[in-house]
Amino acid sequence: MKSILTLMAAVLLLLPSLASAEGAALVDPVKSWDNHWNMFLTIVTTLWAFVTALVIYMSLKYRRKKGQGDGAYIHGNILLEVIWTAVPLIIIIFLGVQSWNVYRQQITVPKDAYEVNVEGFMWGWNVTYPEGLKTINEIRVPVGRPVKVNLTSKDVLHAFYIPAFRIQEEAIPGRTTNIWFNPVQKGEYTAYCTEFCGSGHSLMLAKVIVMEKTDFETWQGKQKEGMVLSPLDKGKKLIADLGCLGCHNITGEKTAAPTFKGISGRETILADGRTVKADDSYMANHIKDPKSTTVKGYSQSMPPYNLSDEEINAVTTYLKTL
Amino acid sequence: MEQAKGFSLKEWIFATDHKKIAVLYLITSLTVFVVGTLLAAVIKLSHWSPAMRELIGAKFYNVSFTIHGAGMVLFWMIPVFLGFFANLLIPLMIGARDVAFPRLNALSYWAFAGATILAVLALVLPGRLDVGWTGYPPYSLVTDANISLYVFIVHLLGISALASAVNFITTVITMRAPGMTWGRLNLAVWGLLGSFVIQLFGIPVLAGAVTLLLFDKYLGTNFYNASMGGAPVLYQHLFWFYAHPAVYVIALPAFGITSELISTFSRKKIFGYTSMVIAICLITFLGFDVWIHHLYTKGVVAWANVIQSFLTIIIGVPTGIKVFNWVATMHKGSIEFRAPMLYAVGFIILFVIGGMTGIANGLLGTDVHFHDTYWVVAHFHTVLSMSMTLLAFGGIYFWFPKFTGRMYNESLAKTIFWLLLIGSLIAWMPLYKAGLEGMPRRYWQIPAQFQEIFKITAVGGFMLILGFVLTLYNFLASAIAGQKATANPWGAKSLEWTLPSPVPSYNFKTIPVITGGPYEYGNPEEKLEGQPAAEAV
Ligand SMILES: [Cu+2]
Ligand SMILES: [Cu+2]
After folding, report:
1. What CA–CA distance (Å, rounded) separates B219 from B237?
2. Neighbours of ion ligand 2 (CB under 5 A)
3. Mutation test of the interface with chain B: which of A179, A202, A207, choosing the one with the most B Cβ atoms within 10 A?
4. Chain A residues within an 8 Å CB radius of B361
5. pTM to 2 decimal places
6. How confident is the model at residue B134 (pLDDT cuts 50, 70, 90)?
7. ipTM reported for the complex, 2 dp
8. Taking the CB of the first residue and of the last residue of chain A, which one, N or C, has fewer CB atoms within 10 A?
């Protein structure tokens, strides 16, 4: 009994000490997470092995022998029951406090963090940098400086998850949430969407590229100079990045959306019975405002895309080649 | 179930006898279990290889996991416990001739049957549901899935479940036989009672949540519609306010039944009956204050996350008490490993894995990484499929004589046990690893680095499917042509075993007077087997 009380006191003493651990210069939540995880895994594996060993031991030791009658008549044992209430309680509170501490690191964004805005859409990620640059499905950041990601969504719920940084958060339309991570090492990491958002959900991946600071600046410089792609390449990239291929395809298969194969100049029958020729202006119009016309036999599930004239031009240029 | 009369369809359609209704629930929920298993096969096939995935397609994959999840939780796990076991056991265990409102009970079943038909039809009707069993808006508002069907199914189920809850709570409170004090109730009855209380308070909230979804989709309201200023995450709060406790709706009866099996086959009084009951009550009430563990990464204020995180993991304590008390019940017992006991022991071992990994979901720091990954999928499958399903099978075997009058095939049941145990370890353990490494759930495409893991788990999945097929065969063949059972093949001391197998329609010829608890094995003062005042026919 006494030892239990001492243990409890120890746990309570631990609380404030953990709470003040925050001030430390630059925490790495990934390390904290991994340490916490190892502790957790050790404890629960031991507990599980202990219970399983007990079950197996009882099963073998107290197997009924021939002619044996009932087992011993025992109601219970208060002391034992107090022990197996108190010990798990202490372990759990200990883990809870430790995990809370990890969580505080996960949600406490360092002040000098590099901030990028990420907007989820069906099905991809729009990234905006403080310098005004934009990328799609690709986040480039300089190594060694904490990064804060402000999240929102254009349409439905998405969630932004980078396993390498043990961090995720919902991207909610109409709201901004945020996460931060500490890219201590150069490399390429994957970000996933973890909130189910339809048929393109499992294709909604983004690259997180952690670069040397100088490389990062060179890249930014090049982007700004407008290291422009040809309209064709740009169109191809847009179609892939914007998630059009989650519904459409370029192979000619019949799916829930008309195929892009041979789309340009095609005679399209609309739901209202009209027949139109799919020229540039028709396609442009359909991309900006898909509800304005609907192809016969299909649902109005295509979301509107707010693209610039130049981008639309790129898309239609590419579509013409299919 | 009068053997002499032969089969009459009318008798079953208009049945109000709790034992008949129990059998109807069992047949219906097993049917959905088969459908759910077929869909699981689709999912596992799609995990097998990229070529398979292309063949199945994203849409069908999404529809499959939606109906698989909804089917297995709402039409198999909950009804097998609160439909089948509750109907079969509660009146028999408390010494009553039927439930308090037999016709309401029939209504509950038929509402459930209607919902079942609609849920299966949802697979083929246009606007197939591809929203996940959770149906989160705004996605569920913008897709062309038939949300009205989804909401109607949930409402039918809700009517069924609320009527059952009122019925059974009333039954236990008012219809216990003389001498059946609260301290003499079977733990199975306590567990079921806890579940019905959860249903009573939780389901109205779920019903409200989906009704608002319906209004948003078809009447142009904006509760969840963010583009009009609504709050999409609100739905998740309301949904999980019921759907988290729903986990305990399944677990509490499973705990109760485990106690019955362990005590009977160890021929030993349940260790710490009182703390077992307290644990059930604690879980019932704590269960309502932990739903935010599904929303740690949804922009909820940090202090709410912290409070509910602690409450969540503290539920591990009463659960731990139960596990240790089971082990202590086996201590100094006289254990006979008939199939139901084997299933109960397997349940404990698998359930402890599920419980421990559940703590990782409840802890804040860890869950920020694990949320919506395969870690969570592995967790709830170790809990539901297999430990809870294993236990349900064990319980069905145990009371098989009571509702069919026949015995199941013992050696087949034991063989299946090993198949299921090993199958579930292969099917779910590797998925923990996938989750730990960051594989998100509900992914039709599988990133190449995870393909290997998924191939292995698919093998385990198919072992489980084989196990299920054999189990269904065992149930069916034994119900038709099994050996005739005696009244009390296990020498059990609980009240239902004083009745003949199968139990006659009126249950008790005269209402018994109860003089002792259900677990009085080895009581030196009690000479007679069974409860003396209960009368055989
Ligand atoms: Cu998604
Ligand atoms: Cu939960």
Report:
1. 22
2. B 244
3. A202
4. none
5. 0.83
6. very high
7. 0.89
8. N
